From TrEMBL:
<feature type="transmembrane region" description="Helical">
    <location>
        <begin position="411"/>
        <end position="430"/>
    </location>
</feature>
<dbReference type="InterPro" id="IPR035906">
    <property type="entry name" value="MetI-like_sf"/>
</dbReference>
<feature type="transmembrane region" description="Helical">
    <location>
        <begin position="282"/>
        <end position="304"/>
    </location>
</feature>
<feature type="transmembrane region" description="Helical">
    <location>
        <begin position="92"/>
        <end position="113"/>
    </location>
</feature>
<dbReference type="GO" id="GO:0055085">
    <property type="term" value="P:transmembrane transport"/>
</dbReference>
<feature type="domain" description="ABC transmembrane type-1">
    <location>
        <begin position="58"/>
        <end position="253"/>
    </location>
</feature>
<feature type="transmembrane region" description="Helical">
    <location>
        <begin position="345"/>
        <end position="362"/>
    </location>
</feature>
<keyword id="KW-0813">Transport</keyword>
<feature type="transmembrane region" description="Helical">
    <location>
        <begin position="57"/>
        <end position="80"/>
    </location>
</feature>
<dbReference type="GO" id="GO:0005886">
    <property type="term" value="C:plasma membrane"/>
</dbReference>
<feature type="transmembrane region" description="Helical">
    <location>
        <begin position="467"/>
        <end position="489"/>
    </location>
</feature>
<feature type="transmembrane region" description="Helical">
    <location>
        <begin position="188"/>
        <end position="212"/>
    </location>
</feature>
<protein>
    <submittedName>
        <fullName>Thiamine transport system permease protein</fullName>
    </submittedName>
</protein>
<feature type="transmembrane region" description="Helical">
    <location>
        <begin position="133"/>
        <end position="152"/>
    </location>
</feature>
<comment type="similarity">
    <text>Belongs to the binding-protein-dependent transport system permease family.</text>
</comment>
<feature type="transmembrane region" description="Helical">
    <location>
        <begin position="232"/>
        <end position="252"/>
    </location>
</feature>
<dbReference type="InterPro" id="IPR000515">
    <property type="entry name" value="MetI-like"/>
</dbReference>
Length: 544
């Protein structure tokens, strides 16, 4: 009973926040479309789901997310072996650089690929601009780091003795990988692939900037239906499909993902240098470097191009409102706003994340307790897959009346961004807490330490690095969040992704150059944050 009460007490605040700022907005968005003239009308939703365009949108979402996931896994698994099981000069810097695309704002990813494959871009002759292939490449660019870090972290922790025994019995390297290593890596690969699929299916900015009018995903279709067409029934129908699909995927993934044995012996032998047999990893890593490096290089080069020459004119123009008053405030004002909002979103997500991580990581003493923890874990993962556009629009239509009239609150945008970052923070903190031997806490308690003292003396020394890493991830995710913020941010206080999108939509070379320069500034800021996280050596992406 005491453990159950403690579990409920720890989960009370996160559940209350999730109920008010997630369940209520999403339910409000769905009710707005499902209840017509005060009565429930599910037939209208069925009609929406059978529309030819809706079928095309759902199919393209599934197809593009599957293709992006497949490319990310095919490149990420061999690259993970090279970057986590082999040593060579510059390995740490390369691993950090390949992590940066994961936290780049999706709108920046879209702008970078447009600059690379557009008509005037270095690869414009390929004719990829506005194609489905460009979207898949953008999705793989955005998510390959998830596979590399998740599978790489699992690969580093494998006990080498079974593979060595199989090799001693005459198994070839391919047989060792197929029969010993791959089964051990299966949970990490399945987990990484499921998370990548979620991110691909909800990559709002990538599809919006690269798809144009020809391609639309469920995420961008919800945005267009709510903002341009005001067709709330269709938006609600797509939100229902998305929510059910994400819930089912999370449930399947939790069943397929095995829990790693914390008692497995880990190798302390220094990793060898690459050899001829590592050609798959070398090839995959080279392709990943090209996939990541070319768009970023094109983005930087484009930002430095002024007319027929080169210079910093686009960066100096960031202190203006652009040509023909494209913006209400300078880009520099938007950068300050983004940083301020990111600080608020970070402390919010960390506060909730610590509580949730404690709840889901403690050892269960009964089947009922284990089921409750599993249910709570799944609940707090829901923001990972639900459309941020749905969440943002839900905020507008549900948090507009007392006692929850928050439309004018400066905390509305940080709260939405904190919910988006919460699953990532939990998955950064929970493995560290779960790896602590419960007997240490019991020993501290037997010596008279209270719960807070036990946490400070036993948990906190283990948790401080993951806590800093979680803060870095939350800060970077907040800087680039676009879907929910596009509904909630005021015109006089826009964030950087919104400003970039506005500049792209306004004609003029100056506005486009400013968009490129602003994208470089935002990408550099997130890159610096992620380089700091990488120095902590916390495998944050490996625990989904």
């Amino acid at each position: 009973m005491r453990r159950s009460l403690a579990l409920v007490g720890l989960a009370a605040l996160p559940l209350a926040v999730l109920g008010v700022f997630f369940v209520l907005p999403v339910s409000g968005m769905l009710a707005e479309g499902l209840w017509v003239d005060g009565r429930f009308d599910p037939g209208a939703v069925a009609e929406v789901l059978t529309r030819p365009r809706t079928i095309r949108v759902v199919w393209f979402t599934v197809w593009s997310a599957s293709a992006g996931t497949a490319v990310a896994v095919l490149l990420g698994v061999p690259a993970a072996h090279l970057l986590h099981r082999r040593t060579f000069p510059g390995r740490g810097a390369l691993r950090a650089a390949l992590l940066v695309p994961f936290v780049l704002p999706t709108v920046v990813v879209g702008v970078a690929f447009r600059e690379l494959i557009g008509e005037a871009g270095p690869l414009g002759f390929l004719g990829f601009d506005g194609s489905a292939g460009a979207i898949v490449a953008g999705l793989a660019f955005f998510n390959v780091a998830v596979v590399i870090r998740a599978v790489g972290a699992a690969w580093e922790s494998l006990d080498p003795r079974p593979a060595e025994a199989a090799a001693a019995l005459g198994a070839s390297p391919a047989q060792v990988f197929r029969t010993v290593t791959l089964p051990a890596l299966r949970p990490a690969i399945v987990s990484a692939a499921s998370v990548v699929f979620l991110f691909c299916a909800t990559a709002f900015g990538v599809v919006l900037t690269l798809g144009g009018l020809r391609y639309s995903s469920v995420e961008t279709e919800i945005y267009l239906l709510t903002t341009n067409l005001l067709d709330l029934q269709a938006a609600a129908a797509l939100s229902i499909v998305q929510l059910l699909a994400i819930t089912a995927l999370l449930a399947i993934t939790s069943r397929l993902r095995a829990v790693p044995d914390p008692t497995v012996a880990r190798s302390t032998v220094r990793a060898p240098r690459p050899s001829r047999g590592d050609w798959p990893g070398l090839l995959a890593t080279g392709l990943v470097v090209v996939l990541v490096g070319l768009p970023i290089a094109a983005l930087v080069a484009g930002s430095l191009q002024v007319g027929d020459g080169w210079g910093l004119g686009n960066y100096r123009a960031l202190t203006t409102e652009g040509s023909r008053q494209a913006l209400l405030v300078p880009v520099t004002h938007a950068l300050v706003t983004s940083l301020r909002v990111a600080v608020d979103a970070t402390w919010m997500s960390l506060t909730l994340g610590v509580l949730v991580a404690i709840v889901v990581s403690r050892r269960s003493h009964s089947r009922t307790e284990r089921r409750v923890r599993g249910l709570l874990d799944g609940l707090f993962m829901l923001p990972l897959g639900v459309s941020a556009v749905t969440l943002g629009f839900g905020f507008l239509i549900t948090l507009d009346e007392p006692p929850l009239d928050l439309r004018d609150s400066a905390l509305l945008v940080p709260i939405a961004q904190a919910l988006v970052a919460l699953p990532l923070v939990v998955r950064t903190l929970a493995p560290a807490l779960g790896g602590i031997d419960d007997r240490q806490r019991q020993a501290a308690a037997s010596l008279g330490a209270g719960p807070l003292r036990t946490f400070a003396t036993v948990d906190l020394p283990v948790l401080w690095k993951p806590l800093l890493a979680g803060a870095g991830f939350a800060f970077a995710v907040s800087l680039g969040e676009f879907g929910a913020t596009s509904f909630l941010a005021r015109d006089e206080n826009p964030t950087m992704p919104i400003v970039i999108f506005h500049l792209i939509g306004h004609p003029g070379a100056m506005n486009y150059g400013m968009a490129l320069a602003a994208s470089v500034v935002l990408a550099t800021t997130t890159a610096l944050v992620m380089l700091a996280v990488e120095r902590l050596r916390v495998p944050s992406l490996g625990s989904f």
